[in-house]
Specification:
The chain is α/β, with parallel strands linked by helices. The strands form 2 sheets. The protein has a 9-stranded mixed sheet with strand order 4-5-6-8-7-9-10-11-12. It has a 3-stranded antiparallel sheet with strand order 1-2-3, covered by helices on one side. Strand 5 and strand 6 form a beta hairpin. The chain is globular.
Length: about 300
């Protein structure tokens, strides 16, 4: 039996011991649902789960709207754009099967007329960063492979994507820690050759960034009920590489160790920042600095 005296850190059922052992409660932090059909304002949205990497236990939930009434498609294509969705959860919790994320993805598919690919990545602390970055980028590579199969061997491609996806019109979307993944994966995608997969834009909702220096907003909302500063620090402690602090480039894009991305051709980006969040100042400062010389980008603050 593990000794309580050997317990190094604990957060919401995840325990880290001095010998490196990690235990996790079997009960999900929030309810989960299997893939199923949704009905959204008269539009049926089908969903299914597809393996990404069986060995790593990663997978994706794909949402396909049936006869949507609107579409974001560019160039008047009769196929649907694709949103690749990276869920939140403080780097350590939740999944693509979490009911709240499942609901949001189905709503987007129906109301925007898009295919949504929601990525289930590996969680920290069992798999510290950059494991989740690698998983999210692997989803883009999977889409690239699907685009190639659609041209060379349509019968071997995923039938939903082969028949309905416009992979030249893809958007990346991340929420909270998922938006942090988007930032790093989006930079990696610019340097990579994804073939017929074209990233047209980024959508970052309340991105999670931080640093060793505290912001006034962090101190103001340190004890807020939804996410305390102590818990946020613990999430970073679980997620970052061993011995790393919050000025690591994975956490602080403006740290001296972070790569210079000023010359990168970033796609148009929408950043949504919540007013009453301890992450607001760090996120706003990072995003404004990164994008100040790279229009068009849009910030929504509220």
């Amino acid at each position: 039996m593990d000794s309580e005296a050997n317990l190094v850190a604990e957060l919401r059922g995840v325990r880290l011991y001095g010998n490196g052992k990690i235990t996790r409660t079997s009960t999900p932090l929030l309810p989960t649902v299997p893939a199923h059909d949704h009905s959204v304002q008269g539009v049926t949205v089908a969903s299914k789960d597809v393996d990404l990497d069986k060995q790593k236990g990663t997978w994706m939930r794909i949402y396909l709207p049936q006869n949507p009434t609107t579409s974001l498609s560019l160039h008047h294509s009769n196929k649907l754009p694709v949103i690749v969705y990276f869920h939140g959860g403080g780097f350590c919790f939740l999944s693509a099967a979490t009911a709240a994320f499942d609901h949001v993805c189905a709503q987007m598919a129906a109301k925007l007329g898009v295919i949504v690919v929601s990525v289930d990545y590996r969680l920290a602390p069992e798999h510290r960063l950059p494991a989740a970055f690698d998983d999210c980028f692997a989803a883009l590579q999977w889409l690239q492979a699907q685009a190639e199969l659609g041209c060379s061997d349509p019968a071997a491609a995923d039938p939903w994507l082969a028949a309905h996806a416009n992979l030249s019109c893809c958007f990346l979307m991340g929420v909270s820690s998922g938006a942090t993944y988007l930032h790093h994966v989006g930079i990696r995608a610019i340097a990579a050759d994804l073939g017929k997969v074209k990233i047209r834009g980024h959508i970052m909702v309340v991105p999670a960034f931080a640093g060793m220096s505290r912001t006034l907003t962090e101190l103001k909302y340190a004890d807020q009920e939804e996410l305390t500063l102590k818990n946020a620090d613990q999430c970073w402690h679980f997620a970052l590489p061993l011995e790393a602090d919050r000025d690591h480039p994975y956490c602080n894009p403006l740290s001296p160790q972070s790569p210079d991305i000023g010359s990168l051709d970033l796609p148009p980006t929408l950043v949504v920042i919540a007013d009453s969040s301890l992450m607001v100042a760090a996120a706003a400062h990072c995003m404004l600095h990164i994008f100040k010389q790279q229009p068009p980008h849009n910030f929504h603050y509220g």
